[in-house]
Specification:
With about 600 residues, this protein is an alpha+beta fold. It is built from 19 helices and 19 strands. Bound molecules: adenosine-5'-triphosphate. Adenosine-5'-triphosphate (ATP) binds next to loops. Its cofactor is Mg(2+). Its main location: nucleus. Its EC number is 6.5.1.1.
């Protein structure tokens, strides 16, 4: 024992199984402690094991590029089974079941282990923790799907279905052990969480804190090491937010809808760290000159949101553009019309000093001193200045100091009308704390989404009519969004009862009725079809006014946060909205 090369992965699997089954968090922790004491001796043992227990925090390996759907195809190929076989369909359709609906539907790892069980032996394949890490390194290092499949085939050879199930969960970076990362860290070392929060470096934490009895001096943030961001607490309405921040000096800001990015600048060296602690060099080409010219100090860390600026409209581009530009940037294209733009709303480090302990008000002053804003490229979000000075005439400002709840409500209403995602309220006297979500920042968004599991109870794939000839009943309908919320349970019951006699089973991948058009995206195919459009019912839908370009649905745009407003039993089926009218609506609301 203790020779890490020899520690079988099956030992870790027994610990996973035990932890997942046990309800008591102290028992989970003591099992983890026993594992550490018995099997981790050398410095690298700790990291090699803990990265397999907290896979979402392991940035050494980056991303595997394997979300469930791609992983399904790679596993099917690695197992050498036909993509049309029942098991392959089950894996592809893991969310809703294949021909036979199994009990594990909705849990990819369980569906995978069901499929694997029929093909792998019961006894452990003898894979060691070290071998697994080497293979996972290979899996993340290649972008080539065939090579990924090869690594998975090797893993399958060296494991049984139980072990492989856990490996699938490691790849998906969620082990569902029912224990928080906080308690894992705490059991490992009392200072582990703090050190991780300011370094985002699991390897370093494992190396520095191996000895539980030696306390570590609290470490501050450093340039060049990602720090876990300060977060916002969700709050239901303006009144509740105001109450929570009672007596504080409050700034309200627009909640921009881009990517949270920390810019670390040290001389000519610049890093762009995202929420998952990864460095994003793709911003470098577009942003480094601006940063060098407009940041007036040699060393600093800015916290902000990376957005896309549309030079033709002189506005931030609509939600979704980030992903599109990122794709283009990867392919080497450079769009002149749409460019990256950073909105810095905070500053964490200046010169050789961390400033997170200063108040937000003081940090705003530092932001003003350190950054020379450049329109549409590098902006600062501070009250009475910065980005506010660049707002288009007649449009609401982006941040202001609020003196009463009415002002917060008004600001919220304006940002929503202006198609922003919501607002963030901040205590101007507060310091910036890594990974904190205790209410120094509050986020308020239009509450379109009914939380909880009832979201999946009934969802409808809705379509738009395609009218080839005016005044003739439409013959084709194209999918454009999925909607499940908005109706009371009784209203929903009534609707389902009415439609139920006309439900026809969807047998993926074939047999989409000829009058419906959907994409091949398996997630966006219904479990049942309505037998024919005449039997269907019109739903009136409200949504966030922004629309998104759609790939998942057949229509060119889909809705954000759709919600059923009313069931229109009164309207005949053929009077439903058609594609052209919808597209016109989108264009007119976008001001085109
Ligand atoms: P959400 O999905 O609501 O963005 P989240 O979990 O990603 O939630 P939260 O901490 O809950 O993140 O919300 C804060 C996020 O909002 C930040 O991570 C940042 O990306 C974004 N954001 C946009 N504008 C601001 C702003 N003015 N101040 C702080 N955060 C902002």
């Amino acid at each position: 024992m203790g020779d890490e090369k020899a520690v079988p992965f099956s030992v870790l699997c027994s610990m996973y199984n035990w932890m997942a089954k046990s309800k008591s968090s102290s028992k989970k922790r003591s099992k983890f402690r026993k594992f550490l004491d018995n099997y981790c001796k050398s410095p690298s043992d700790y990291f090699n094991s803990i990265r397999l227990i907290l896979p979402s925090l392991d940035r050494e390996r980056g991303s595997y590029g394997l979300k469930e759907s791609v992983l399904a195809t790679c596993l099917i190929d690695a197992l050498g089974i036909s993509r049309e076989s029942e098991d392959a369909v089950r894996l592809i359709n893991w969310r809703k079941g294949g021909a036979k609906t199994g009990v594990n539907v909705g849990n990819f790892a369980l569906v995978a282990s069901e499929v694997l069980q029929r093909r792998q032996s019961l006894s452990s394949g003898g894979l060691t923790i070290l071998e697994l890490n080497v293979l996972l390194d290979r899996l993340s290092a290649t972008e080539n799907r065939a090579e990924k499949t090869g690594v998975l085939a090797e893993l399958i050879k060296k494991t049984n279905a139980q072990e492989m199930k856990w490996i699938v969960m490691i790849i998906l970076k969620d082990l569902k052990l029912g224990t928080s990362e906080k308690s894992i860290f705490h059991e490992f070392h009392p200072d582990a969480e703090d050190l991780f929060n300011v370094t985002c470096d699991l390897k370093l934490v494992c190396e520095k804190l191996r000895d539980r009895s030696k306390r570590h001096k609290r470490q501050d943030i450093e340039i060049g090491k990602a720090v876990r961001p300060q977060l916002a607490l969700r709050i239901s309405d303006a009144a509740a937010a105001w109450k929570k921040l009672h007596g504080k000096e409050v700034v309200v800001e627009c909640k921009f809808d881009g990517d949270r990015i920390q810019i670390h600048k040290s001389g000519a060296e610049i890093h762009f760290f995202s929420r998952n602690f990864l460095d994003h060099p793709e911003y470098e080409h577009a942003m480094s000159n601006i940063i060098k010219e407009n940041i007036l100090v040699d060393r600093c860390i800015l916290d902000g949101e990376m957005l896309v600026w549309d030079t033709s409209t002189n506005r931030f581009a609509e939600f979704g553009s980030n992903q599109e530009i990122a794709k283009d940037a990867k392919q080497g294209f450079d769009s002149d019309r749409q460019i990256w733009s950073d909105v810095a709303f905070d500053i964490l480090y200046v010169g050789d000093t961390s400033v997170i302990h200063q108040s937000l008000k003081e940090r705003h002053e530092l932001l003003r001193k350190v950054v020379k804003p450049s329109k549409g490229r590098l902006e600062i979000l501070v009250p009475n200045g910065g980005l506010n000075a660049h707002r288009p005439p007649g449009e609401p400002c982006w941040s202001l100091i609020a003196y009463n709840v009415e002002e917060v409500q008004k600001f919220f209403n304006e940002t929503i009308e202006n198609r922003d995602e919501g607002i963030v309220l901040k205590d101007l006297g507060s310091k910036w704390e890594p990974s904190d979500r205790n209410g120094k920042w509050l986020k308020l968004k239009p509450d379109y989404i009914r939380a909880g599991s009832d979201l999946d109870v009934a969802q409808f794939l809705v379509g738009l009519a395609e009218r080839s000839v005016p005044n003739i009943y439409p013959r084709r309908f194209i999918s454009f969004c999925r909607v499940g919320t908005g109706l009371s349970d009784d209203e929903l019951d009534a609707l389902v009862t009415k439609l139920k006699p006309y439900f026809r089973k969807n047998e993926y991948p074939k047999r989409t009725p000829s009058f419906y058009e959907v994409t091949n995206n398996s997630k966006e195919r219904p479990e049942v079809w309505i037998e024919s459009p005449e039997k269907s019912i019109i739903l009136s839908i409200t949504s966030d006014i922004r629309t998104i370009r759609s790939e998942a649905f057949a229509a060119p745009y889909c809705l954000r946060f759709p919600r059923i407003d009313r069931v229109r039993y009164d309207k005949p089926w053929h009077e439903c909205l058609d594609v052209q009218s919808f597209v016109d609506l989108v264009h007119s609301s976008n001001g085109n």
